[in-house]
Design goal:
This protein is α/β, with parallel strands linked by helices and about 220 residues long. About 30% of the residues lie in helices and about 30% in strands. Strand 2 (about 30-45) and strand 3 form a beta hairpin.
């Protein structure tokens, strides 16, 4: 373990405060940032016997940029996130590749890590993108826009969608009440509007409502 301060760059569900806090409560607070040289995309899967979605993954890629959050972790906290992201390989990010959106002039000094994919496996009928996961990620983006003027100026949520690769026709709306999502997803209308604005109405209309969602109470 390095003697340097340790940080994680979260680019998917870790963007949302509640999602980060599920692993470690102290990680609720994080700073928005843009990283050059990282590609985020829908290409992470956890194969198994049951149903599973395709998650967001990331790889080193000089031609891409990725917005997300940076938060400090202790050695114990880092181990907890390593366990959470066990299917990924932890890679280091050079501070020179980072632009902070919290007013800081430079990235924090220390080791900054992101969880990288070793392989790309795209969404499929068996492993689709699921709306509940999209909602978590974009809700985190909207939280950042509400709390950080530079993130709002950057259009953080819109940029998140634009810089994410491999959006797919294999995408299901698994919200608890897909026809009235605001009951459990207050930002549903805003999220849907962003998806339509960036990806287009045709792509949005191809999202399938998961039949099982009608049976939930």
């Amino acid at each position: 373990m390095s003697n340097q301060p340790q940080f994680i760059f979260g680019y998917g569900s870790l963007v949302e405060a509640d999602s980060r806090a599920m692993t470690w409560p102290a990680a609720r607070y994080a700073s928005p940032a843009i990283v050059k040289g990282v590609e985020r995309g829908w290409f992470d899967q956890v194969p198994g016997q049951g149903y599973s979605p395709t998650y967001l993954g990331a790889v080193q890629s000089p031609s891409h940029t990725c917005d997300g959050v940076i938060f400090p972790v202790t050695e114990q906290e880092l181990a907890a996130y390593d366990k959470r992201e066990s299917g990924y390989k932890r890679d280091k990010i050079d501070q020179s590749k980072i632009t902070m959106l919290d007013g800081s002039k430079a990235a924090p000094a220390g080791d900054i890590w992101f969880y990288a994919n070793q392989n790309k496996i795209l969404a499929s009928q068996k492993y689709p993108i699921v709306q509940s996961y999209v909602d978590v990620c974009l809700n985190g983006c909207l939280q950042l826009e509400a709390g950080y003027p530079l993130a709002r100026e950057h259009k953080f949520a819109e940029s998140f969608i634009r810089t994410t690769t491999n959006w797919s026709e294999w995408w299901v709306n698994d919200r608890i009440y897909p026809r009235r999502p605001f009951i459990y997803v207050p930002n549903a209308s805003t999220i849907d509007g962003l998806l339509i604005s960036v990806l287009g109405i045709d792509a949005f209309n191809k999202i399938q409502i998961e039949p099982a969602s009608w049976e939930r109470h």
